[in-house]
Each structure stands twice: as structure tokens, then as C-alpha cells.
TrEMBL record:
It holds the Pfam family Cytochrome_C554. This is Cytochrome c552. Keywords: Membrane, Transmembrane, Transmembrane helix. The chain crosses the membrane at residues 12-30.
Amino acid sequence: MTVSRSLQRRAGPTICMLTVGIFLFVAAFARGESPKQASSLAELVAMFDSSGCRECHEKIYEQWEKSHHARPLMGMENWIFMAPYLKRGPLAVKAGEKATKANFPCFKCHLPQVNYATDEVAAEIAEAILKDDKSTIRKLNIGCLVCHNAKAIVHGRAEKDVIYGNKDIPDHQGHVVKKSPLMKDSLMCGQCHGLGPNLEFETPVQCATLYGSYLHAYIPCGGTQTCQGCHMKNADHYMPPDFNRRDELSARLRESLPLEVQTLAYTFQPVEDKLFPMVIVKTKITSKAGHRIPDG
Ligand code: HEC
Ligand code: HEC
Ligand code: HEC
Ligand code: HEC
Ligand code: HEC
């Protein structure tokens, strides 16, 4: 009697777990989720490798290679900016190997392909960051397949092995090209260039807020241009400004934030023996940007 009851008790949860398991399995396929998850960093890098695109899109590749998108985990002057976050504060880990994807809410925008990787990959990345292994971290980027796949879709999920562009090209080498509804829309960039706080994480983060400024200040004042219109003329993938190139940055800012100065010098003489040199300086800064500057 006692034995059979304890068997029954054990059987109950097992059946329940099986049912939940089958349900999740079916649900994952019903939503068209790709079950493929890279289980090593090398595999993730290979899955999102942009070098195969270079052969035919050489100019775009070279522009991209120089852009901040090609080094999204490096701050100014090649510094791995995640290191202090893994050492102190709510995202810190005792040892790199203990890290999971939960340690990297920043990757929502700085390395969104981590969604296609297991926690072991997050641990490998954390170890490389803590060892200041720049050559490994340099291999992680916002490459062609990040923007031209998952970030080019509005409803549903991007199809595996499809590149999204401005038009359908069924016979494109290697991957079919399908028309994206988003490629020329500011929302494409806004997905990462931020509206505000990201409260969905256990440790909420706020980084870029520029898209909020574009939507709520530039557009209501009559602004008509898109991010791509200003930052990607002729599909230029360099997307300046580059904060590591000081001279180029200063020249751009002189042009985009013109400063007008008017001065009037005179002498003020309130009483006969007192002379005060005076100056009136009128300044006007006009912003030609589609959002607040600086932002970040
Ligand atoms: C063998 C050469 C070749 C390779 C390799 C190649 N492409 Fe292309 N791709 C082309 C050509 C040619 C076109 C233009 C076709 C046209 O305009 O009809 C094109 C078009 C495109 C377009 C669409 C352009 C538009 O008008 O919107 C995108 C996006 C694109 N390629 C991305 C990529 C990416 C990303 C890779 C790497 C994964 C890649 N291509 C690899 C030759 C190639
Ligand atoms: C940060 C996002 C982003 C990245 C990274 C990116 N692209 Fe693009 N790409 C775009 C957008 C947006 C457009 C559409 C621009 C437009 O039509 O104004 C575009 C357009 C293109 C086009 C069409 C060009 C044309 O003449 O109309 C090709 C080809 C292309 N990309 C290839 C690539 C390749 C190859 C890479 C990697 C080396 C790459 N892209 C990386 C966002 C990106
Ligand atoms: C997948 C997320 C993502 C998408 C999509 C994206 N960006 Fe970025 N972008 C970033 C990140 C992250 C950086 C900062 C990288 C760094 O320097 O560490 C960046 C940097 C930049 C910069 C350099 C200036 C700076 O502050 O670092 C410009 C300009 C820029 N992006 C414009 C665009 C435009 C225009 C689009 C749309 C065509 C776009 N981005 C799409 C994530 C993205
Ligand atoms: C009307 C043109 C225009 C539009 C529209 C525009 N930008 Fe800019 N953006 C500029 C100018 C000008 C600068 C100043 C620096 C420069 O010239 O490179 C700038 C600077 C930036 C920077 C550097 C921010 C900083 O703190 O200095 C980023 C990132 C950026 N833009 C992204 C975007 C994104 C994303 C969008 C769309 C949501 C967008 N821009 C729309 C013109 C524009
Ligand atoms: C909502 C998307 C998003 C999230 C989440 C996010 N970032 Fe960013 N971050 C960006 C974008 C886009 C830029 C570049 C544009 C800008 O500066 O306006 C940027 C720029 C930066 C820069 C400046 C890069 C440089 O080249 O100097 C640093 C540092 C940074 N982020 C750190 C972090 C850290 C650390 C976290 C997590 C705690 C984080 N970000 C989370 C989108 C994000």
C-alpha cells in the first residue's frame, strides 16, 4: 500500500514534466524558432561571419569594417568597456566561467546574436573580457547578418539563411535576398539606438536614447529625414561619427553645429572720470542633426 502510493506520487510530476516538455517543444516549432544555438564562441563567430560578403560587396565591407558597428564591445581607443561591469556592481561575476547571458543585458544592442548562443558562450566571452583578450573580443561585431537578418523584420522572426535588403533577389549567391519592410526606416536603427530604459532585464539598463529624441523632438518640429538619409548617403556603411578620429569628428561638428558669433565693443562712461570697457557677445548654435547631440 505504502509502496504503491509513493510510486503514484513519483509518477505524477514525471508525467506533468513530460507534458510541459512536449508542449514547449511543439510551441518552439509552431513559432518557427530555430533550435540551433552555438555552443562555443568559435561557432557563434562563424555563424555571423561577414568575411564571405567582402568578395562581392568590397566597398561596403571596407566602410563597415571602419565603423563603430564593427567594434561594438570596444570603447574609445580599443578599450573593452564591459570589463569594469564584470568586476563590480550588479553584473559582476566571481570568475568568467560562472557568467551566463543574464550578465550581459548590454548585448541586447551591442551583440544581439548572443540570442543564438548558449550560456557557455557567454562564459567564454566573459573570460576573454576579464583576460583583456582583445583579439578574441574584436571578432564579435554587429556584422552584415545582424542588420540584414533579425534586425530587418517587423512581425515574426527572420527566416534562417535569408538576407533582407531593399528588394527581392532570388538568385543571390549563398543566401536568398528578400525585401525588408524596414531597411529605409529609422526604426531599423531605433531598435538599438534606444528610446530609454530597458526594464525587461533583472538588472535594467539604459544606454542609448537618441531615437527617442528623433521621434519626440525632431519629427514634431517638422523634420523629414531618416537616420539612413543623413548617416548612410549612397548606402555608405561607415556611418560616422567615429569618435576615435578626432580631426574628422571636429570637422563634422563644425559643419553640423555651426556657431554664429556677433560682437559689439564699446566704452561705458557712467561718470566723467570712470571708463568701463564693455563687450556684447551674441552667439547662436544651429543644429543640423536629427536629434539631440551629444547623446549616448
Ligand atoms: C558572389 C557575389 C556575392 C556575394 C558573395 C554576396 N553578394 Fe550580396 N549581392 C550580390 C549582387 C551582384 C547583388 C546585386 C543584385 C542586384 O542588384 O540585382 C547583391 C545584392 C545584395 C543585397 C541587396 C541589395 C539591395 O538592393 O537591397 C544585400 C542586402 C546583399 N547583397 C547582402 C549580402 C551579404 C550580407 C552577403 C554575405 C553574407 C552577400 N551579399 C554576399 C553579390 C554577392
Ligand atoms: C547597422 C546595420 C547594417 C550593417 C551592419 C550592414 N548593413 Fe547593409 N544596409 C543597412 C541598411 C539600413 C541599408 C539600406 C540603406 C538605404 O537603402 O538607404 C543597407 C543596404 C545594403 C545594401 C544595398 C546597397 C544599395 O546600393 O542599395 C547592400 C548590398 C548591403 N547593405 C550589404 C551589406 C554588407 C555586405 C554588410 C556587411 C559588410 C552590411 N550591409 C552591413 C544596414 C546595415
Ligand atoms: C544591432 C544594434 C544596432 C543597429 C541595428 C544599429 N546600430 Fe548603430 N550602433 C550600435 C552600437 C552598439 C554602437 C556603438 C558601438 C561602439 O562604439 O561601441 C553603434 C554606433 C553607431 C554610430 C557611431 C557613433 C557612436 O555613437 O558610436 C552611428 C552613427 C550609428 N551607430 C548609426 C546607426 C544607424 C544610422 C543605424 C541604422 C541604419 C544603426 N546605427 C543601426 C548598435 C546598432
Ligand atoms: C538631419 C540629419 C540627421 C538625422 C535625421 C539623424 N542624424 Fe544622427 N547625426 C547627425 C549629425 C549632423 C550628427 C553630428 C555628428 C556628425 O556630423 O557626424 C549626428 C550624430 C549622431 C550620432 C553620434 C551621437 C553623439 O552623441 O554625438 C549617432 C549615434 C547618430 N547620429 C545616430 C542617428 C540615428 C540612429 C538616427 C535616426 C534615429 C539619426 N542619427 C538621425 C545628423 C542626423
Ligand atoms: C538599447 C540598446 C543598448 C543597450 C541595452 C546598451 N547599449 Fe551601450 N550603446 C548603444 C548604442 C546604440 C550606442 C552608440 C550610440 C550612442 O552613443 O548614442 C552605445 C554606446 C555605448 C558606449 C560608448 C561606446 C564607445 O565607442 O565609446 C558604451 C561604453 C556603452 N554603450 C556601454 C554599454 C553598457 C556597459 C551596457 C550595459 C550595461 C549598454 N551599453 C547597454 C545601445 C545600447
